[in-house]
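Office hours follow-up: a student asked to see two folded examples consecutively, so here they are.
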Amino acid sequence: MENSSIDIRALNERINQKSAFLDLLTMEINKSIVGQKYMIERLLIGLLAQGHVLLEGVPGLAKTLAIKSLALAINGKFSRIQFTPDLLPADVVGTMIYNQQQNQFQVRKGPIFANFILADEINRAPAKVQSALLEAMQEKQITLGDTTFKLEEPFLVLATQNPIEQEGTYTLPEAQVDRFMLKIVVDYPQMEEERMIIRQNMNPSAQPKINPIVSPTDIIEARNLVREVYMDEKIEKYILDIVFATRQPEAYKLAKLKPLISYGASPRASINLALASKAYAFIKRRGYVIPEDVRAVCMDVMRHRVGVTYEAEAENMTSEMIVSEILNAVEVP
């Protein structure tokens, strides 16, 4: 025990030093983003835990601006893909073009070859395009012709979807939504924040310039350190209890939830909940995970992984309400 406590102390010190850049990064992003502290923190969790992020919110909540600012502050390559119903997979991943002079096919890489991909309004494109993007997210590689290209690290897909318009949209299939580590619901700013937004936009000279604070290499180093964050067996058990309660609610004295859940969370939920908890502990400058870390990230990891039945919809029960009930019922270590 003595040995592990020394290790954790040393790990704490290393994390304290290595996570110092997070404050600078947040300050830089806050130059262009007023408020939205929760969204920025969740983007950093996705970045540190190597998880893709799905942002849901009405238009105009600075989702695109936040992602662009993050890419500029990390000195990474950024590309934005506006998803439309007529988009083709080649518009995302690239294509082979015939060169007449050289009498051969040449590869033309698509916008997916960047560190930060903003998939704007992902639910506007048909399934073919969504699956091309999701292959890149899962495999971190693209195949064009006979050649397979590895995507540069860090590689992060941040997709946005607009929840209010249903016309001309294609719902993301469950298997695809499961590839996103976090689903963040972005809310309106406070009145005071919105006043500052108006002032910032009325004054052209106040338009901020985002400077690169860290390099992609620093992010890769931080990601490796996040995986070293200590997680006790009790915390692992807590994560498993939360996930298993979505599959077998009756085993956790939640039999009333059984008819409301159409399918429970997949093993990806357990992996992502553990990784996101470690990233959250890293952001809080700690070398070990506590139950509060798990609870802090749980909703964003779980809300898109629990299916609700028609019965639940009839009772106006959302997946968020089900996850909240589970969090209240599962014993905290």
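And the second, which I mentioned at the end of office hours:
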Amino acid sequence: MPPDPDPLEGARERLVVALDLDTPQEALAAGRDLAGTVSRVKVGSRLFLAGGPDVVLRLVDLGLRVFLDLKFHDIPDQVAGACARAASLGVDLLTVHASGGGAMLRAASAAVGEAGAARPRVLAVTVLTSLAEADLGVLGISRSLGAQVTGLAELARASGVDGVVCSPRELAALRPALPSPFLLVTPGIRGAGEEAQDQARALPAPEAVRRGADLLVVGRPVLRAPSRADAARALLRQISESLG
């Protein structure tokens, strides 16, 4: 008889654990803890500066799909070169800033396309989840936070990238306008009942799924748990229940 289907498989495709750690050794230990429980981990600038491309390659060797979150934001030629290099590492997802403009976004998409079947998907960051409405005026942005996120997301789609990173609080507005397969990826995710900490626009995982998130990025609630695998499984169960 074939094995019973994994009831958490659909949820596993949605969860990304952010390895926001200081050393490659810590990150690889966390990767070993989580391999077999989750399918994706995120490597941001903090870890990448400590471990470089090698830490990405070693996480891939553990069987994990890597979301490289370096938020490239530069002239189109520089971003294209960076994205091509990231694609050569075998990453699954990478980020650029939507505010870099259409030419930069198109260059990023074209650069990863040269990787063929191994092409990573490009996500455009809209407005960081640590920012609130009042912060935009200080930055010289006159649009409301919601309008800024929507405008940048629409620019990203028109420029050929695969999805955007947004707060879960913008999902309800974005999902109807940007249907799948365009990805909506949400950091600032917490388990039910957990505090938002420094994320100004956070939501619990079940609510983010109900609002239309494709991928949920979770860091500290998993990394700081006594058992990372158990914490990840608890989140997977919450996500699975939300998927129905």
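Two things to take away from it. The mean pLDDT is 92. The chain has one domain: 9-238.
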